[in-house]
Amino acid sequence: MNTVLVVDDDESFLLNLIEGFKSYQDQFSIMTASNGEEAVTILDQHEIHLVLTDLKMPVMDGFALVAHLSANHAAIPVIVMTAFGTPEMEDSLKEIGAFQYIEKPIDFNVLVSKILKGLESRSKGLISGVSLSSFVQLLELDKKTCTITAHAEKRQGNLYFKNGELMDANAGDLTGIDAAFEIFSWENVGILLTNSCPISEQKIHESLGFILLEGSRRQDERESPDSAPATMASLDAPLGSIDLAGLELGLDDFLAEEAPPLPANPPTPSPHTPTAAPPSAHASNPILTQFISMLEAMPEISHSILVSKEGNILHSTKTGTEQVTNFITYLSVVSQQLQMAMGTGDSQYTLLSLENGQKILALCGKEVIVALEIGSSVIPGPIAAGLRPVLSRISLQ
Question: What is the CA radius of gyration of the chain?
Answer without folding.
Answer: 23
